[in-house]
């Protein structure tokens, strides 16, 4: 009841509704346009740019204050983004956290420090304005806003405690500087907000279109199911017909096809809600969930069903949505079976193995297959929307949906794979109790 009242009250305040949507509900993007090459080039720009500008402002166009050791430290921070361990998976928490820390130190902290130490010179006034625009272009506007404020305060505190004896910004220029900073910040904020909205609208429109198309496929499938029923009825009326067995097999195959297609439609409609996934708090048993999904999956052949082996080391309970997590496992099983098919597998028992257990005080669900695997160069991209490792056979939403659902439950999903060997998708979840 309270939730309904809150929603009704919120609907009467458009500004609060917009603020809630932008500040709380909008997905956080710690790294904008993440990719391994982008991280590498950003790291290179910092690694080379810091010593280069240190030389420019100390030798070629000298400024009142320059600090070579500080430039070297900042350059090494940029180099960290160039390492394979960091940039190979832009979606990992380690990469996102390091990226956020590096850019916070490099931009608002370092630039504010240099601005204060140089008494707000014309060079550093312009540089600070550019810094704000770069920061909002590199990360989510909420993180950039928080980082700009905290970074400026940290730099100011350090300057007061250990900074050089630099004169303050002339009083006659302080208002001018405030106006320039305000203009830069407002411009960066508006551009970042509009870009974030545009990205979400494009993605939502595309997903909605896919959901509608998937839903519309139910109409011809209903017709096919009716044809199958008519064939079965005809067989019952004429049991002595020499073609009765063939017709019965045809009706069975038709119904199996309809059931499989409806299952796929359910999956695609769920995937199409990628941007509208609510948080759920129902308690879900991992072992029960896995058993139910494996039993209900519409396998094409009995050999497919027999190749799936479920191993329950230890059950655990987590908070999420059983329906959404069923779609997650459906997606992973579907991909594993496609991989086995691509590898010309004979579907030996255990070729697709699902394990449930505990590790490091958390729950673990692993889906491993002995299929074709995934090429190393594709691994950093497989959780991105619309990226598919099965070129021409997938829309690339399934794994993005899986990641969103797992993260909404407070967990994480990772993959290890070797091409032509197989793949292991591991879901780690916080345990209830």
Structure keywords:
433 residues; alpha+beta; Heat Shock Protein 90; 3 domains; five-stranded mixed beta sheet; two-stranded antiparallel ribbon; 15 helices; elongated; HATPase_C_sf; transmembrane; phosphoprotein
Q: Looking across the biggest beta sheet, what order are the strands in?
A: 2-4-5-7-6
Strand content: 5-15%
Would you tell me the overall average pLDDT? Answer: 84
List the total number of helices: 15
Order of helices and strands: HHHHHHHHHHHEHHEEHEEHEE
Oligomerization state = single chain
Q: What would you report as the Rg, rounded to the nearest angstrom?
A: 28 Å
Model regions low in confidence, pLDDT < 50 over at least 5 residues: 391-396
Derived structural class: alpha+beta
Report the end-to-end length measured between terminal Cα atoms: 28 Å
**Structural domain count:** 3
Number of strands: 7
**What is the helix fraction of residues, given as a range?**
55-70%
Shape: elongated
SSE diagram, text form:
Layout: H1 2-11, H2 14-25, H3 36-60, H4 68-80, H5 84-87, H6 93-117, H7 122-138, H8 141-162, H9 171-216, H10 218-237, H11 244-271, E1 282-285, H12 286-296, H13 302-307, E2 308-312, E3 317-320, H14 322-342, E4 352-359, E5 362-369, H15 398-408, E6 412-418, E7 422-430
Parallel strand pairs: 2-4
Antiparallel strand pairs: 1-3, 4-5, 5-7, 6-7
Overview of the structural elements:
This protein has three domains: 29-197, no CATH class; 217-271; 279-430, Histidine kinase-like ATPase, C-terminal domain (Heat Shock Protein 90), CATH 3.30.565.10. α7 packs antiparallel against α8 (141-162) and α14 runs antiparallel to α15 (398-408). The chain is an alpha+beta fold and 433 residues long. It is 63% helix and 10% strand. The model is unreliable at 391-396 (pLDDT under 50).
